[in-house]
Every structure is written in C-alpha cells, then in structure tokens.
UniProtKB/TrEMBL annotation:
GO molecular function: oxidoreductase activity
UniProt feature coiled coil, ranges: none
InterPro entries named among the record's database cross-references: Amino_oxidase, FAD/NAD-bd_sf
Pfam family, one: Amino_oxidase
Name of the protein: Amine oxidase domain-containing protein
PANTHER family, per database record: FAD/NAD(P)-BINDING OXIDOREDUCTASE FAMILY PROTEIN, FAD_NAD(P)-BINDING OXIDOREDUCTASE FAMILY PROTEIN
Length: 325
C-alpha cells in the first residue's frame, strides 16, 4: 500500500483534477485514481485514423473568473482556441442561424488537452479500478481490482452518483445517500465518422431540436488546425438512446450512419465507430456545487452537482477544495 495521503480522490475527471490541483497548491498531499488509461472522463479525444476526434464533451465556455484563468492560460500557450460564437439550430428540417454569443472554446489537439493540463504535477494513478472502499485506522482505504490498495485521510469521489453509491453507500449517512441518489445522468451514443471529403456546408456544428435521432452534429475537424482530416461527431438524443441503449456497437453504428445520411445526404465514409456513454449528461442535478460531510471527511464533486457543462465540472471540484482548505 502507498503511504496514506491527505486526500484520496477517486476519479480523474475534470472535477477530481480541479480539486486535487487546488489542495496540492495549498500544501496538501493528494493522489488521484482512475480506472481508465488516461485522465478527463468525458472530456475525451480519440485518435481515429489520421484524425483526433472529441467523442464526449464537445466544447467549453468560461463564465467564471476561476475557469477563465485556465482558459486564458490555454489561449496564451496555444492549447486552447476560440472555436465559434454561434452554433446554428436544426429545427423542423431547416437550419436556423443564431446571433453571436459568448465564445465556445476548443482544443486544437483535442479536448483531452484540458484535463491533461490540469493533471500536470499531480500524482495520478491510471488503470486503477476501485472495487471497494473501507474506513480503517489509517483513514479511507480503496481496494483496486488488481489487488493494490490506496489510502487517504479524506475521501473525494468524482464518479457518477450511481457508482458513488455502489462504492460508498455505507460510508455516508442514510440521509446523504438519499440526497446523492437524486442526482442522475442520462446516457448517449456517439457516432464518429471519418470522411474522404468534407461536407459542402459552412456550419461548424448543429444543435438539433426535436430530431428523432440526433441532438448534436459537429464537423469536428473545424476545431483542429489547417489540413485536419474531415470528421463528424453525432450524439443521439435521450429517446433514441433509451430505445437502443443495450444494442451492440455494430448495430448502433450501422443505424446511425443510415440516419445521418438521411439527414445530410450520402457521406464519403472512410471509417466509422459508435461509442456508448452510459453516464453522459446530468438529467437531475444535485442543485448544490458539491457534496461535503466534514464529520466523516468525505466529499463528492462533478458536473452532476449543478447541472452540467465542462466549466461546471471544474468549478465543482475547485470550490469543494476551497471549502475544506
């Protein structure tokens, strides 16, 4: 077992990384565990043929001073760019332009650049799938699937609420377990499509209203530099996702390609792939920026606390750290 740290964070999503970054800056010791091979959760970029494709979170905004400072640093260093200020809406078969609004930011190398930046200088242990957590004399002890153990005085959970309660239902009070169970996330299928030729359109992405299948379609390569291979990312809406959630990846991929071509016309596809996000977007939020039980030294953070958005995830972890410093 590693030496116990002041904080043990389960989940290297944006909220968990923001929390760890803040408490470490304040002088605490912290280790972050994640079951994946990398950091970021749904702020994910996949290498797909010659392309890099954001198949989870699509962009981010900055409306708070705390997150604007992160974005400004990224702009200055070149790993963030302003993408667009207006995303048109598809409604009833027609594309409706929208006036310019606040900047939508993207990362030229993919949105995973954001969590990678937040993780710099932190102790992050990947491929550590936690199967159980207990309270021992030395503090909280997390048991990984491969037998490794990790300990910390204070436990922070940056995982979807249903997984949080699976891991820690006996570590929180019954009242808090009931509260945490009110936060839910809905699933989503994502289709990644690499094209031989780009679409003959001028929009970077579409938000779709009342479409039977899709809620979002992006020309993902418009976030990259000149010469990036043309690529589409399409996300399904809640109703279609629920009806097809447990179907095979291949079945869903074929169905979504057919639906996408019905909407956009024939596509010159070179590669395609479907990805299922079981916990994609907050459906019902906790309606508070984070969860914290000071008596038990256990907390939780994530975009599900106050209703989503990349910035919301960051602020959840950042503000939890400030609250307990």
């Amino acid at each position: 077992m590693n030496e116990p740290t002041d904080f043990l964070v389960i989940g290297a999503g944006l909220a968990g990384l923001a929390f760890a970054r803040q408490v470490q800056a304040a002088g605490a010791t912290v280790q972050v565990l994640d079951k994946g091979r990398g950091v970021g959760g749904r702020a994910a970029t996949r290498r797909f043929g010659a392309a890099r494709v954001d198949h989870g979170a699509q962009f981010f905004t900055a409306r708070s001073p705390e997150f604007q400072a992160i974005v400004d640093a990224g702009l200055a260093e070149g790993w963030v760019k302003e993408w667009y200020r207006s995303i048109p809406e598809w409604r009833d078969g027609t594309i409706h332009p929208r006036p310019d609004g606040h900047p939508r930011y993207a990362c030229p190398e993919g949105i995973s650049a954001l969590p990678k930046h937040l993780a710099e200088g932190l102790t992050v242990i990947t491929e550590a799938e936690v199967q159980g957590i207990s309270w021992e004399d030395i503090g909280y002890v997390a048991q990984a699937k491969d037998g490794r153990q990790f300990a910390g005085t204070t436990l922070i959970l940056n995982v979807p609420p249903v997984q949080l309660l699976t891991l820690a239902s006996d570590l929180v009070t019954p009242e808090d377990a009931t509260l945490l169970a009110t936060a839910t996330l809905e699933p989503c299928w994502a289709l990644l499509a690499l094209l031989e030729t780009d679409l003959a359109v001028d929009w970077p992405a579409l938000e779709l209203t009342n479409h039977p299948v899709f809620s979002w379609i992006a020309r993902d390569h418009t976030k990259r530099g000149p010469g990036a291979p043309p690529a589409l990312v399409a996300h399904t809406g809640p109703a279609w996702t629920a009806a097809h959630l447990e179907e095979s990846q291949a079945t869903v991929e074929a169905a979504l390609i057919a639906e996408l071509e019905t909407l956009l016309g024939p596509l010159a596809l070179s590669q395609s792939q479907a990805h299922r996000w079981r916990y994609a977007k907050p459906l019902t939020a906790l309606d508070q920026p984070y969860f914290w039980d000071g008596a038990r030294q256990i907390g939780a953070c994530g975009d599900w606390c106050e209703g989503g958005r990349v910035e919301g995830a960051y602020l959840s972890g950042h503000r939890l750290a400030l609250a307990i410093e």
